[in-house]
Amino acid sequence: MFFSKLETALLNAQTIPTVKATSNPDLFRLLPSIDELLRNEALQTLAQQFGHAATLEASRASIEDLRAKVTAGDLDEPQLNAAIDQLSPTIAQRLQTGLSYSLRPVINATGVILHTNLGRAPLSGSALEHVTQISSGYSNLEFDLATGERGKRDGHVSRLLAKLLNSAGREVSTIVVNNNAAAVLLTLNALAEGGEVIVSRGELVEIGGSFRIPDVMAKSGAILREVGTTNRTRIADYEAAITERTRLLLRVHRSNFQIVGFTQQPSLEELAALGRKHNLPVMEDLGSGELFDLRRVGISGEPMIADRLRAGIGVVTYSGDKLLGGPQAGLISGGPELVAKIRSNPLFRVLRVDKMFYAALEATLLAYLREDYDSIPVLRMMRLSEDDLAHRAEHIARQLRISSPQLQIDIIESRSVLGGGSAPGSTLPTRALAIRSQNNSADELLRRLRQWGTPIIARVEDGNVLLDLRTVEPAHDATVLAALEGISG
Ligand SMILES: *Cc1c(COP(=O)(O)O)cnc(C)c1O
Question: Distance between CA atoms of 320 and 61, rounded to whole angstroms?
């Protein structure tokens, strides 16, 4: 017996004892007691598999379901008897659902490479291996193996970024926190708490997920001093606003919008020179922050981290899981003195990250050093050629035309989006599958794709379901094909 005497006694006190099925119209009396149910061998097995308490709970809930149906008059006697016969599998199903993962893999066929709702950057194979290796046992996270003394966790990542950013032509230190929002908060607090931070009105951005520069500034304890106008800010505007209360000059990358037309913004060099003149640090929130030059895939305007540091910016903040293609993290890179000051702030301890993140970052950064760009999923996706994408789409379309005549399939020219607040307005040419059905609306097809074994997330455009294979692992093309065949009925 898996259930104690006390438990069964308590349960039986709450339940109605079983009575043999008779012509008695009181259907409630047909419901088994929990005690009786639990004596069933199938239930004993479930208790072994899913645990005692969960099985008890699922059994009770399943009987309560039946009781509710009887009360509502939804079941006649034969139906109730059939449902009672099915109680074991019903309870098993309930246990299965309740104890399965809620977080599941999905196939991203939207063509949005850094899709925040779908988890932004997928990790590289080497990052995952390193995470597993480092996290499944102990590591030298904060232990210096040469001296046997305490070390710093930053070192594992800082040494690699020092190499990757050496074109900045100066010494660079890096620390890591939970995400870029945290990096901005920490940096503002460490460098400007109680004082003023000068920022252009054209850079008071809001990033999706309620990150607003003025709000983060308020939480950091620094006072926002806006200068210039939405479209034009001159270096003289910054200089005129400098007082003895000023602590920091801030530049924010316009990650998700562009200002075009009659515009002006001082150069980074001008901003850095102004900072030097008044002995004020200059910070830039880069958002994404590139280590790989996106001009190589035809996208310009995204800031390279090293360029900003070479221009004389004191400290930059950027995300680990945007264009960098690593784990969620916020990186703060800059001159060793400034970074040491930020590191000594108590908020750094609050916002620091676990060994898993260091392991994933270290592996990702090593791939950059080896110039093994194809091993980083987001970089590989960005570099896929239109021909390759057309070829894969063609292959799926050919099979579908044979197997699913009720679908109308075209391959159209479309644009993939970087997403995740990177490269506003920058897209990559792609070829997408455009699908419509004689039997179902595009929204219905979209819903069915979402409900597929491995859910497939696509989008609707002009009444077609659009699938962009740029963000689909080639190994998943077969799943996409099977799903399209499966939902087309
Ligand atoms: C994305 C972004 C942030 C927030 O970064 P998270 O890593 O999502 O916290 C902050 N500032 C800018 C400019 C961004 O683009």
Answer: 44
